[in-house]
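Lecture notes, continued. The same structure-token format from the folding unit now serves as the input rather than the output. Read the line below as a description of shape only.
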């Protein structure tokens, strides 16, 4: 599989001693480092905790991280990002919302609310529901075909959780088991969906070039661009697979978690703020709720990593040296009381926009060249909300709330890596709707 250069065995201080990693935990420091073109670089081996566990670290890098545009810099990253950006432009997002996400949500809700339980309530598992909804967005983004039956959709959904866990197993307990399940899911995804879809796109490319069909007859997607040879990295099938699985994990996994966590914290909010119940389907209120979730609980990992490239320093005077590992503590930065107020550690959908111009979501989407590809998908191209807000509104409108008889189940994480609260990543989240 694709290989990336392994990191040095430890960064050296100026006097030759081993230098520990540095933590960037303020928005000021994160902005300074990530917006610089020379200060830091991505290193997938750092994110995969290779030095701590070389065997599993190598699996994560070669199978899930190293070849993706999310973990490279320079022209390779810029070209691929430029090619994929039109997939989330305004007209594309509108089509995804109106033609794919919301109709599928309506269809699935109708099925889930068709038959009540013996107590007159309707129950369904929200992780599986949301993954089914977002699978269609992911399929369009990647260019996957063959998701035309519930059985095939369920098969694709079964890969989502394991592959997402495999991209970040360095932060989870029982990493051996997590990677084993991730590799099995990836292998099935490749054989059952990726390869048939790539062959289909290659055939469509042949037909386009011979004039049988027009370019516009084939929807834009990652695999369409790959079949056209628009990026050198995508001509290598192994690298293209990694690109597709990370897009899969990011678009399905993070979207699912953001909706669930919004519902989870909003229900707690309404207990203490019953007057806000009348706003539970208000789009602006729900957009602010989603942004608050992104601020508090994204990117659903304790920190992101970078490799320092030059001498630098943090705002508290901590020196940074070349080849030093950096932990970018988004969650801690987003709890800064000087920016977000004295209740920065609490969920507050009515939080005012920070006076210094910091977005409501803080640095939850990252900053700089590698800012999260999904920013516009969530907040919309106009800042008024995308498909996520409308999907959340539908769920709130029917009265979805956590099922008190079926507590949620989350992935078991390595809490030694967390300096703030646990950031849940749910694998099961049952909800109930009254008759």
């Amino acid at each position: 599989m694709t290989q990336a250069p392994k990191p040095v065995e430890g960064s050296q201080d100026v006097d030759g001693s081993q230098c520990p990693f540095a933590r960037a935990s303020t928005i000021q420091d994160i902005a300074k480092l990530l917006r610089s073109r020379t200060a830091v670089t991505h290193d997938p081996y750092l994110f995969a905790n290779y030095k701590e566990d070389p065997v599993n670290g190598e699996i994560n890098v070669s199978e899930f991280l190293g070849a993706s545009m999310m973990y490279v810099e320079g022209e390779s990253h810029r070209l691929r990002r430029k090619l994929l950006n039109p997939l989330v432009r305004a007209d594309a997002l509108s089509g995804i919302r109106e033609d794919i996400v919301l109709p599928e949500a309506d269809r699935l809700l109708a099925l889930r609310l068709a038959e009540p339980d013996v107590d007159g309530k309707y129950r369904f598992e929200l992780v599986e529901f949301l993954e089914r909804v977002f699978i269609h967005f992911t399929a369009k983004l990647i260019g996957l075909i063959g998701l035309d039956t519930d059985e095939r959709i369920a098969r694709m959904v079964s890969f989502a959780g394991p592959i997402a866990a495999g991209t970040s197993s360095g932060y989870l307990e029982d990493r051996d088991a997590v990677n084993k399940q991730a590799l099995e899911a990836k292998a099935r995804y490749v054989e059952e969906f990726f390869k048939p879809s790539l062959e289909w796109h290659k055939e469509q490319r042949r037909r386009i070039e011979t004039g049988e069909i027009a370019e516009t007859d084939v929807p834009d997607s990652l695999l369409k661009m790959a079949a056209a040879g628009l990026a050198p990295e995508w001509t290598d099938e192994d690298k293209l697979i990694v690109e597709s699985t990370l897009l899969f994990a990011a678009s399905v996994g993070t979207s699912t978690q953001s909706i669930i966590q919004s519902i989870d914290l909003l229900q707690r909010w309404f207990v203490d703020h019953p007057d806000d119940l009348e706003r539970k389907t208000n789009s602006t209120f729900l957009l602010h709720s989603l942004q608050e979730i992104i601020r508090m609980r994204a990117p659903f990992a304790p920190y992101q990593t970078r490799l320092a490239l030059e001498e630098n320093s943090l705002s508290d005077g901590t020196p940074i040296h070349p080849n030093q590992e950096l932990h970018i503590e988004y969650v801690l930065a987003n709890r800064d009381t000087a920016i977000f107020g004295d209740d920065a550690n609490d969920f507050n959908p009515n939080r005012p926009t920070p006076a210094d111009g910091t977005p409501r979501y803080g640095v939850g989407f990252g900053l700089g060249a590698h800012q999260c590809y999904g920013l516009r998908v969530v907040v919309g191209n106009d800042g008024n909300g995308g498909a996520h807000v409308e999907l959340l509104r539908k769920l709130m409108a029917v009265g979805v709330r956590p099922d008190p008889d079926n507590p949620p189940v989350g992935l078991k994480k390595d809490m030694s890596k967390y300096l703030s609260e646990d950031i849940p990543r749910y694998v099961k989240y049952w909800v109930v709707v009254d008759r």
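Point for the exam: The chain has one domain: 30-423.
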